[in-house]
Write a structure and sequence with these properties.
- The protein has about 525 residues and is of the alpha/beta class.
- It has 19 helices and eight strands.
- It has two domains: about 210 residues, no CATH class; about 180 residues, Alkaline Phosphatase, subunit A.
- About 55% of the residues lie in helices and about 10% in strands.
- α7 links the parallel β3 and β4.
- About 50% of the residues are buried.
Amino acid sequence: MTLPRTQVLLAATGALAIGAAVGRLQLDSMNDADGPSLSALAANADPDAPQVPEVAASRPDRLVLVVLDGLGEAPFLEALEHASVTDWHWRATVDVGTPSLSRPVYHVLLSGVPQAVSGIRNNAHRGPARADDLAARVRATGGTVGWALEGVPWFHDLFGRPEDVYERPAAGAGPYAFMARVLNGSPRLAVLHFVRIDMAGHAHGATSAEYGREADQAARAVVALRAAHAGTPEGARTVWMLGADHGHLARGGHGGPELDVVRTTWVGLWPSPIERRVRVPGVVPADRLAATFAALLGVPPPATAMGDPLELPDRPSRASEATEGRRAAVEKVLGESTRRGRRGAMARAALLALALVGLGAVLVRRGRVPGGPDGTERDSRPGRAAQALVGALLPTLGACLGFWLLGPGMTLSAIRNHLGFLTQSTGAMALGAALGALLGRRWGAPLGWMFIASAAVPGAAHAITAGSMGRSMMPDELLLSFPAAGIVPWGVVIGAIVVGSLAVLFGRYGKNARTRVAQSAQGGAASLRKS
């Protein structure tokens, strides 16, 4: 066996490094904000706190916001039924938008600014909210805010302040005692975040018994917390709003545009019987919830909210001319940024394609295929060079085809969990690349060329987006493809290793078999001579 040359090892190492770096950079760059859109949002913010409709003294003016993380529309209603929560006074079907990931949707729920405008598109975002928010409106009117967060601290990271009440689960205490502590502090706005439903969805899927069990337990915990709070002086002044940030696919996973993922249900529970129930018609965008919550609290909506409040059963709610003007101005700028970003990406893709074709033509014109075991050229004919060049591309094409046919999926919802996604994606790519490598080697393609070709895929993805998926305004259909390009070199290298190992194994087996046949023949001939 001839050991791999230094150039081949360098090509493999470089391809793997480029893939890993570009995949990480592409994911992080999803949160790059579009400057013109945020500037238009700030320029059209309400300069002063708008007047809010007067609320009778007898109406509730406190809010407990319950976020049942990951609980989709149908499982949500089923869990409420199991917990005997039938006394809802308000209900809406909500589209949380895309990407349907937790931290971006949290931002929408309390700011009223969609993901495309804020630029917060995945959970890797760091730092505070990029727009005015409900918690800030409550504090500005003299109210207090409390956070009871079962899992990740992202709500507090986005909207929390040092003066807020902030509780997390404590060892040795009851599972929801920390939530009761927040409610006992009587904040005007309390956010209770249940996260174990989402964890069960990722681990087992939305149709699993584990997912249903966690949903039922959370719903019953809400019933118990609400019953305990009802006996306090503040209980008679408190509305409970229950809902989710997203759903899950049947097999688990979210982030994409699938209806099971983006559709959620929100219900409102008033502290005492009221004259009518409100069932909001149709499907409403999640950016309308922040203004609705503000109306319940009797505080101005976030100054940059892009959605009007929804109809409520016990108080007036009306559209705002300022909100309508802000929405129109921001959507105009966002549309221009989207067109500009996508035109730039298409132009870069075209230039890159021309450059790669030109490079291939130069290599074929030179008519040389380097990479033989002894450092010599394998062939100097242009036809053979062209065949070798195509062969070098086959493992990369096979990897992409394998991901498309056998991978976990083509939207962000395919990331059920990171380890599972990487394992399935790499395995699917390695299988396709191995088949491509078999044919590529027969066509005389050197391994080094194969690895360089695989590195061109993440390199191209980074070049096409100019290093930023956020500012390039990639459509939902490509939000997974560009980061997944970073896995291609890993699939190709693993596939090539598998092919090489099998070739060595079967080569040795074949050699040993031929040796045994020759020895048998020699033994037979010797026996004949003796006889």
